[in-house]
Specification:
Number of helices: 14
Largest sheet: none
Shape: globular
Strand content: under 5%
Structural class: mainly alpha
Oligomer: single chain
Helix content: 55-70%
Distance between the termini: 54 Å
């Protein structure tokens, strides 16, 4: 393990204390709409109908247990991971379909990556995927798939790294990660959070969830309802559902802009990341405020 230079953020200690005080409730399952996924993947219609709704982290871990086996098992595991990640976001099925179709041998790559995640751990699988990149699959959703595959094994964990976790770390740990395919940076992230978990007496995945929950609770455009322990002093987020095609297109463009910005080199201006994130959140609020009743 590399030398860890980031101490445990006090805010994370407080989140863990509050979470434990209310009995360590798990993350809420992700609500999703069956029909759009069946339309995008008619050959998997029966399997999709068998998935729980809402789908939990535990459900997705079980779905990815056989992902290293290849072919249909891999695609089904990947679908479950993406359904969990996208929830009710309307363009989830479209993007997932393109990930599987736009790169030759995508399913075979995902099967190999799943096996490495299970047997060797998240950073090794991340490196393999970085070297065999699938078009349309960014770090945020790739690490969701890796998380579920690694959780079924005994290796180093694979932790989700998306804009919410990244933003929380920037604000509370002074740590500006980039959502790009830098293997060393992802390994440092996993090793650091794993070290924090060892110090705090919990699992690394617990801390990733706590950071995600706290960040989601402060974003009024997030579909993820913040649990009570993470919303102290925050405004509960509004649910995002039943979007029109036009609204989906604008929100998708904002998500793309946020992901692209997060991959840029770190700015010398410490407030730039927060300012950009705030701007995107304000734009999302404007879009949702203009929705037809």
């Amino acid at each position: 393990m590399s030398d860890i230079v980031h101490p445990v953020p006090p805010a994370l200690r407080d989140l863990l204390r509050r979470w434990e005080a209310v009995g360590r409730p798990p993350q809420q399952g992700s609500n999703w709409s069956l029909r759009p996924w069946q339309l995008a993947f008619p050959e998997h219609s029966e399997y999709l109908a068998s998935l729980p709704n809402p789908i939990s982290r535990a459900d997705a871990i079980e779905a990815c247990r056989e992902a290293p086996d290849g072919s249909e098992a891999t695609v089904r595991g990947f679908l479950a991971a993406m359904i969990w990640g996208y929830g009710k976001v309307g363009y989830g099925p479209y993007r997932t379909a393109h990930v599987l179709s736009d790169t030759a041998g995508a399913a075979a790559t995902l099967a190999e990556v799943a096996g490495v995640a299970r047997d060797e751990g998240g950073p090794a699988a991340f490196e393999l995927l970085a070297d065999n990149h699938l078009l349309g699959l960014g770090v945020a959703f790739a690490t969701k798939y890796l998380f579920f595959c690694a959780a079924a094994g005994d290796g180093t964990p694979a932790l989700v790294l998306d804009r919410l976790v990244r933003g929380w770390l920037a604000r509370n740990a002074g740590w500006s990660l980039r959502l790009d395919w830098r293997v060393g940076a992802y390994r440092e992230y996993v090793e650091t959070v794993t070290s924090w978990a060892s110090e705090l007496g919990c699992d690394a995945s617990d801390l990733e969830f706590l950071m995600f929950a706290a960040a989601a609770s402060s974003d009024s455009t997030s579909q993820w309802a913040g649990p009570s322990f993470a919303t102290v002093g925050e405004t509960p987020p509004a649910a995002v559902s039943s979007l029109t095609l036009e609204e989906v297109a604008v929100l998708e463009a904002l998500d793309d802009a946020a992901e692209a910005f997060a991959a840029l080199p770190v700015s010398a201006m410490a407030a730039d990341d927060d300012d950009f994130d705030l701007g995107v959140r304000q734009l999302r609020r404007i879009v949702l405020a203009r929705r037809r009743p």
